[in-house]
Amino acid sequence: MKLTKIFLGIVLLCVCVPVSAQVTPEQEKEAYKMAKKDAKKLAKEGWQVPSGELPLEKQLALAYMMRMEKDEDNQPKYVFGQGISGGDFYDAAKLQASEVAKAELIGNLSTDMTRLIDMQLQNQQKSAKSATSLSKITAKSKSLMSQKLGALTPVVEIYRNVSEESVEVQLRVAYERAVGVKQSLDLISKDLEDEGINLAE
């Protein structure tokens, strides 16, 4: 299947929590069941929601429903990243947690992108040299994608006070998988062409 077909009709996710995920009533029920259990566990550990954010159980339920969603190829629709960081100030801890979460998300996107390119290399019977060059190209893609994504709006945002002068922040972020992979490929399209890797074949 051509990669262009995989990304046909994709709409960019604003990385905000969707009001209603595309899941069945049974899946939604299961999501809220798991969220309720997790919310109780996290509350016992001291985690709480910042003022103005959705209740913890609601955040977790929506995150679970996003994980359950599939795309037209029956693959997970979203890719996720999680980050935890502590500090003396909330904003500083949140910023660091956001960077950690984004790095994990981009790493997951890179894995999917590499898998697609590997399939093309096999189909086109490329040499080991191309495979070696691929590792350098994907590393470049991670760096460029980190700059392109910028700050991501968390799907889940919670914190807990570690001491009177220290706070710990935990963030979970999400991005539409197909969009992210396409953007990553676009950023390195010239490098791929220079290596003779034709993704349109």
Task: Map the helices and strands.
Layout: H1 3-6, H2 25-44, H3 56-68, E1 78-87, H4 90-123, H5 128-149, E2 156-163, E3 166-176, H6 177-187, H7 189-194
Antiparallel strand pairs: 1-3, 2-3
Helix pairs in contact: 2-3, 4-5, 4-6, 5-6
What does this molecule look like?
Residues 1-20 have low confidence and may be disordered. Helix content is 55%, strand content 14%. A three-stranded antiparallel sheet has the order 1-3-2. It is built from seven helices and three strands. α4 (90-123) crosses α6. With 201 residues, it is α+β, with helices and mostly antiparallel strands. The chain is flat.
**Multimer state:** single chain
Share of helix, binned: 40-55%
Approximate shape: flat
What is the number of helical segments per DSSP (H or I, 4+ residues)? 7
**What do the pLDDT scores average to?**
83
Neighbour order of strands in the largest sheet: 1-3-2
Class per helix and strand makeup: alpha+beta
DSSP strand (E) fraction?
5-15%
- Stretches where pLDDT is under 50 for at least 5 consecutive residues are 1-20
Radius of gyration: 19 Å
How many strand elements?
Answer: 3
The biggest beta sheet reads:
3 strands, antiparallel
N- and C-termini, Cα separation: 9 Å
How would you spell out the order of helices and strands? Answer: HHHEHHEEHH
Brief characterization of the structure:
The protein has 201 residues and is an alpha+beta fold.
